[in-house]
Structures are given as structure tokens and as C-alpha cells.
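Dear colleague,

Thank you for sharing your sequence with our group. We've completed the structure prediction you requested, and as agreed, I am returning the results in plain text so they can be pasted directly into your records. Please verify that the sequence below matches your submission; if there's any discrepancy, let me know and we will rerun it promptly.
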Amino acid sequence: MIKKFIIDKSLETVSSIYPEYDNVKLNEIRYGLESIYLSLTKIVVILFITLILGIFKEAVMLLLFFNGLRMTAFGLHAKESWQCWISSSILFIGFPYICIYVHFSSYVYYTMMVLSMICFLLYAPADTKKRPLVKKNRRLKFKILTMIIGLIYIFIFFKTDSLVIKNIITSSMLIESVLIHPLTYKVFHLPYKNYEKYVFSK
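Please find the predicted C-alpha cells below.
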């Protein structure tokens, strides 16, 4: 299998460079490599489909704006790979179509941005069971960065005349605010505020 071959060869390289790494550390690296591999293959396939459908540019813009927030606000991840494929396809194939053809009133756009910023202020960053944000100063740093990125997006929104970019900005903000909301975690039966387990155990 290509995935196993690439990851095994990568781990062999890491082990040769860092012979002091034990099995625990190598397993952590394996998990990271598997996540990167799945993300890259998923992005390549989805972008290829958007290229065929003629929405490649819009999909790339949505991917960039969304991941700009995702890097600091984080949010839930699908439990299974197939769930990730379905959700990613909906987001990066379905939403670009919406961004091209839909036009909302100014009131709707402003409401979505305000609600998103409130969610960022209250709930960002939202960690996961596998990646708990234990340190308080890191959580604060990511919250501030998320708010700054959100404000930059709002600034771009008011500066651009492109309806597509306006839709992409509001969509990326709204999607990320949903992914970090505790109600979303509850709906998918995922643990929220995972860092508390580590804080209270000390």
C-alpha cells in the first residue's frame, strides 16, 4: 500500500536522524504523518474534481480562507476517514457553488460575521481529544490570533467589490464558528474542552 510505504520510509529516516526517539515518540510522529498524508490526498482529489467542475479558483480561495482560521481556532475532526471525505466534499465542492450564485442582503452578511466573531471570542480555540490545548497561554494566543484573522477578513470584505470573495469570507467564518461551537461537539458526541482533563488531573 502506497500510504504504508511512504509513512514507513519516512519513519525510518526519522529514526536514523534521531536514534534517541522511543516508540512513543515515533508513534506520535506516525500519527502526524498519517494525518498529513490523508489531508494531502483528500485535497488533491477534491481540487481535481473542482477543476473538472469549473470551480477550482473558488474552491482554492475557500480552502485558503477557511484554513487561515482553522490554523488558530482549530475545531472538531471527523471520527472516521469516510466522514472526513464526505464533510470535506460538501465544504469544498458544494460551498464554492453557493459562493458563486448566492447573494444575501447586507443585513445577512453582517449578522453572519458578527455571530462568527462572537463564537471566535467565546469558543476559539476548540481542541480535540487527540490534540488537547493544555497550556492556558497557548489557548489565549490562539484566541487572539483568531480574532485578528477574523477582523482582517472583515476588512477585506468591506474593501472588495467581488460578490464571490464576500461569500467566501462569510462562508469560511461561519463554517469555522460552527466547527468550534460546543453544540456541534455535542451533536457528534465528541468531548469538548479536552484540556480540562489535564488541568484538573494535576
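Summary note from our side: The chain is about 80% helix and 0% strand.

Kind regards,
the structure core
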